[in-house]
């Protein structure tokens, strides 16, 4: 199975900005299209005081930072042009729902998504909603958020609604990781409650050990089928195991996770996320190589973003120099 | 208002070295000049055992690491050539003044700056002193350092003296941030004492929330006017909000800070710092894109350091491949 | 003295993967060869569930992640081709020996190295063993590991055995650093016990202050001579002093360490490690510049991996633009 969807994390919790303009983003969409990406999910269109565009709703509630580029318009236009479905991620205040004021989080998002639907609803690529408020276990208050928001979003525009929960796993919560059985029970309860207001669930796959990933994927896949939800997996392409937080993942680990996902019967693989961690234009050079490894593995000619510009040309210079120095040595030893 | 000054942080507390040689530094000065930088500030010419050149004074006091390139000579020569004013940053022992032995810190710096003035004083670009010992509040001992050093430096060479304090703000000191009122009182006291030995004050702008920055800038600007000091702002171009410490800042946040500074009436914007965080030659690719965003915003043709070498060429390859694959599909569907 | 050996850290504790394929690795070996590298040490051929190839022994003991490329075959072939000696690093379970189950760590490695010798023993470049289990002080259990493994490895293939201990120094263990005297006593005891099963000792050089490094190197060098061991030094090319863990080291610090090593009388300098921290193809651009600085210092033409592709071309564009803008200004002022 191929990776056919990706988050776009330009309004971010913790990942550095690439500072791309329109030209760089278009090149990135081309690179996505080339490997078969048909879905992009804007992970959130606003977080605290940053947003993808200058929203009247957000500006009337918060001290927003001006958006010099309308990223939502840009991403929708590029999605229109390249035949990609775009999922719109909701606003995350970073405070109300963290502090128990769930209703305020819901109310702002109702107004925000109305504004968005009015302003950007004409884009044919606007094909999904993404509720950005992540959970890892049953939480009755967030169930209520999902129900209220889900119904509202469906009323605005009847398109699929996606969530991407995380697993309370040992790689992120070493002190009190959940067991597979606890995970199953908890999410059985969640799915029973959200089945009417959410369509697709894409668990993040980086919170558990590589060895136990398949078992979790299988449970998730079966739970999704039980409640007639669509089950995607969010194949994280960043590395949680090294000191820098976070660089692109290593290729063997990515292969392992894609293989586990394919065997588990998930409906689709998406990733967090292409533009930083597996793009040939990434600010992290290791991502450029990861793109090539991925291309090779699915039978596509690699782009060689790293290789063409550096390795080949410099490799040729080095080859020449090495040959000359060997020739020199031979000349000397022949004397 | 444009950014017209930058620190040079090659002798650093915590930022990785670019390992540039003369050619790379000259290119960087050209890139600075192109966007209108007229002032560079060497943030410190010595820190613990590293210095910009092999100083006799420092070597007789500390186990110094040899300086393979005379960076001070290089920076002064490039400043001469490109018509840039250079501010010389003092030595920071990293220990004496931290441990209360202020006099020793002063005495070493007196001897060090004499050596520097003798050796490098002929450079016409040598146009300012920078006292590298940063504070965030009134501190009578450091006032004494400023007074002693300030008088000494003025005696050596009567050129402007700059300091760049930080604000004890909530982004860096979440547990006990200062209030705007406390900040104002404290710095009123500082300015009253240093007005005779310091000429320019450039507060760092990254320690407070984006929403409160303008208020702090306004207070700083008014205080400077009250004491007839020149008020610059140090617009940090690195990002304090992400997990990696530190990458280039995101463009919307930089726009926000430049706008707040312009409205507040500061005399000049400088940045910490160009070469890592907004240079087209930066070791951080996101900085190369930031340079282009900045160029566009001030009406200059962007350099497209990232785009020309990667995006355009690879984008063309991708466009061709995508067209061919669409052509192939059409051919198939026409059969 | 030149750096003539390097670790290869593709199976890593904490360093991000470059995601290189065969072409990139070959270019990297060319770049090593060009500066005179004659020895590569695969730091470990397996760590927890990742390995350089799909080992039957490891797969029967652990849930291994599939190795999409046989890196051991690749590194041996490249070493054969470029006339480089390869040291094979043992498997590190990351648990047994940490938890006191030393015998299990030994037994797995006996079987693993037998498998390796059978499968890869025909490569002429297979010229050394590296025991990857690092220590910083006398430890009777690890002495036993070294003795058992050393004898086993010698029996399999009578080639030199290398270890690379760390110093319990103040840069890594600020709270209870060892003194030089304690270090000497402890390692005198270690060397007395391992002299028959280890041939080469290459202490890591980054755990102590720059000022005290020479003294440690001298002690290590004398101890090696006393016990007729070969004494190498592992000149770390990453920077432990900045916030990002870890970028390439700054050039003056590397010069300092190479100079101290040369004066101390070590037999050879190796580094941890070339491909991330001083390669012209590194994912860290500062490493590309470090390679050039190193080339210049040993009288080789630098490769200018960073300069050719960016600085020169962009520098020319900038020069043109700057000249034109000066010409424009002159034209104006002549009117």
Q: Name the helix and strand elements of chain A from N-terminus to C-terminus, one letter apiece.
A: EHEEEHHEEHEHEHEHEHEHHH
Task: Report on the biggest sheet of chain A.
Answer: 8 strands, parallel, barrel
Q: What is the CA-based Rg of chain A, rounded?
A: 22 Å
Supply the number of helical segments of chain A. Answer: 11
Tell me the fraction of residues in β-strands of chain A, as a range.
5-15%
- State the separation between the terminal residues of chain A, measured CA to CA: 62 Å
Find the structural class of chain A using helix and strand composition.
alpha/beta
CATH superfamily of the largest domain in chain A: Glycosidases
CATH topological fold name of the largest domain in chain A: TIM Barrel
Average pLDDT of chain A? 92
What is the highest CATH level, the class of the largest domain in chain A? Alpha Beta
Which key phrases capture this entry?
three-stranded mixed beta sheet; alpha/beta; eight-stranded parallel beta barrel; TIM Barrel; homotrimer
Helix-strand layout with pairing:
The structure is a homotrimer of 335-residue chains.
Chain A: E1 3-8, H1 22-34, E2 39-42, E3 46-47, E4 50-51, H2 56-61, H3 71-82, E5 85-89, E6 91-92, H4 102-120, E7 126-130, H5 140-156, E8 161-163, H6 180-194, E9 200-204, H7 210-226, E10 230-234, H8 251-264, E11 268-271, H9 274-277, H10 285-297, H11 305-334
Parallel strand pairs in A: 1-2, 1-11, 2-5, 3-6, 5-7, 7-8, 8-9, 9-10, 10-11
Antiparallel strand pairs in A: 3-4
Helix pairs in contact in A: 1-3, 4-5, 6-7, 7-8
């Amino acid at each position: 199975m191929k990776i056919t969807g990706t988050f776009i994390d330009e309004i971010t919790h913790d990942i550095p900005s690439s500072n791309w303009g329109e030209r760089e983003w278009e090149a990135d969409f081309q690179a996505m299209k080339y490997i078969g990406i048909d879905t992009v999910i804007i992970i959130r269109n606003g977080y605290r005081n940053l947003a993808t565009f200058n929203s009247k709703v957000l500006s009337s509630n918060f001290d927003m930072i001006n958006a010099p580029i309308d990223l939502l318009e840009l991403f929708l236009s590029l999605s229109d042009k390249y035949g990609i479905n775009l999922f719109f991620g909701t606003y995350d205040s970073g405070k109300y729902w963290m502090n128990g004021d769930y209703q305020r989080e819901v109310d702002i998002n109702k107004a925000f998504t109305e504004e968005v639907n009015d302003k950007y609803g004409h884009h044919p690529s606007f094909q999904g909603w993404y509720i950005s408020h992540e959970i890892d276990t049953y939480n009755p208050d967030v169930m209520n958020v999902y129900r209220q928001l889900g119904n509202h979003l469906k009323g605005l525009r009847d398109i699929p609604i996606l969530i991407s929960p995380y697993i309370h796993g040992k790689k992120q919560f070493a002190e009190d990781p959940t067991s597979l059985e606890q995970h199953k029970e908890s999410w059985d309860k969640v799915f029973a409650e959200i089945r009417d207001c959410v369509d697709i669930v894409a668990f993040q796959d980086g919170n558990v050990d590589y060895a136990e990933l398949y078992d979790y994927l299988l449970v998730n896949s079966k739970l999704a089928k039980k409640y007639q939800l669509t089950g995607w997996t969010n194949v994280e392409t960043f590395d949680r195991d090294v000191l820098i937080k976070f660089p692109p993942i290593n290729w063997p680990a990515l292969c392992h996770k894609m293989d586990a996902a394919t065997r588990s019967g998930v409906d689709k693989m998406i990733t967090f996320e292409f533009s930083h961690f597996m793009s040939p234009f990434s600010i992290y050079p290791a991502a450029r190589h990861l793109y090539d490894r991925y291309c090779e593995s699915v039978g596509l000619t690699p782009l060689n973003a790293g290789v063409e510009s550096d390795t080949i040309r410099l490799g040729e210079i080095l080859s020449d120099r090495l040959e000359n120095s060997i020739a020199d040595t031979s000349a000397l030893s022949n004397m």
